[in-house]
Each structure stands twice: as C-alpha cells, then as structure tokens.
Task: inverse folding
C-alpha cells in the first residue's frame, strides 16, 4: 500500500516539511558518497548509541564526532537504506503538510523534534547498554502521523495497491493507511 495523496487541503506552504525531507535526502546522499565503510562510520558517529547516551560509555576518539546528547538530533536525519528513506519521506510528505498547517511552522518544528527525541528515549531506555546505533526519522514521523489522526480522524487517502503486474488505486480511511505504516515500523524493528 503506497499513499499518494490525502483529501485535506492546506492553507500554508509546508516549508518545514519540505526542509526536513530535503535535509534527510541530502544527508542520505552524503552517507552514500562515503562508501560502505564511511557509511557505517557515519552511522556510529551521528546515530544514537544508547550506551553512550545513557550508559556512560564513550566512543573511540576516531568515531566521537559530536557529543552523545547531540546525536539525539543528528540521528533523525540518517537512514539505513533507500527504502528506509523513501518510506519515511513519502509518509512525511503526505501527512506532514497538514500537521504543519494546523500547528504553524514554529510549533511544528518543536513538535517534530520533540517526537523524535521521545522516540529515541523510548527505544534507548529499555536497552541502556546497547552499542547498536539507532538512526532514522521514523520516531519523529510517528508523532506527526499520530497528530494527523487526532486532527483528521475522518480523512481519506488515495493509495496505490500493487498486485503483481496490476495495480489498483483506491481511497482508504487515513486510520487504515497509518496503521499499515505503524505495522511496518514494528516489523522492521523486530527484524533488525
């Protein structure tokens, strides 16, 4: 199920939604330009590592690029692969503009960063000794999608459903589309 458009018009230009998308794409292109080893090093340097954020551990000097507290924010702009990036940015594009429209630019940026921060701590606190980096905008986008559901509970979304060589476009309730996204996030977390 691929969302294409929702039925909610907006009254403002979604400057921050576009800015977050552009920033994530540019950062991912930079990650890709580093080659496989550089990509991995960037994830360790800029991703959240619970053991360094909460457990008092330190990174080797060659990997310590920013303070652990700053990785809470830098990690939101890194992605692990093309599908991770495309999925997150598509959902942010479809639903973020309406939330930004409802909140205004200033509150939207604070809300987005607060949701991303809350997601980092929700994932890090249960495993404070983990040395596995956490990256991605999924936590921030989850907050945006939750806000969308609260603001527009009756909204409908045009989705593309690939059925092998055939495809079908239908309008579904936003609740169903966003449940699908949350299910994908849970599956992705369990597979990692």
Result:
């Amino acid at each position: 199920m691929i969302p294409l458009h929702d039925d909610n018009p907006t009254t403002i230009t979604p400057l921050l939604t576009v800015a977050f998308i552009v920033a994530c794409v540019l950062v991912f292109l930079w990650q890709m330009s580093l080659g496989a080893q550089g990509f991995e090093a960037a994830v360790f340097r800029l991703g959240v590592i619970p053991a360094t954020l909460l457990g008092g551990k330190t990174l080797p000097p060659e990997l310590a690029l920013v303070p652990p507290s700053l990785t809470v924010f830098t990690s939101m702009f890194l992605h692990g692969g093309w599908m991770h990036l495309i999925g997150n940015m598509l959902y942010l594009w479809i639903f973020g503009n309406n939330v930004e429209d409802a909140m205004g630019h200033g509150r939207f940026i604070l809300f987005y960063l607060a949701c991303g921060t809350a997601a980092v701590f929700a994932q890090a606190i249960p495993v404070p000794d983990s040395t596995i980096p956490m990256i991605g905008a999924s936590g921030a986008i989850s907050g945006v999608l939750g806000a969308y559901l609260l603001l527009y509970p009756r909204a409908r979304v045009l989705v593309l459903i690939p059925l092998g060589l055939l495809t079908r476009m239908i309008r579904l309730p936003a609740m169903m589309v966003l449940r699908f996204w949350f299910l994908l996030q849970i599956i992705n977390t369990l597979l990692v």
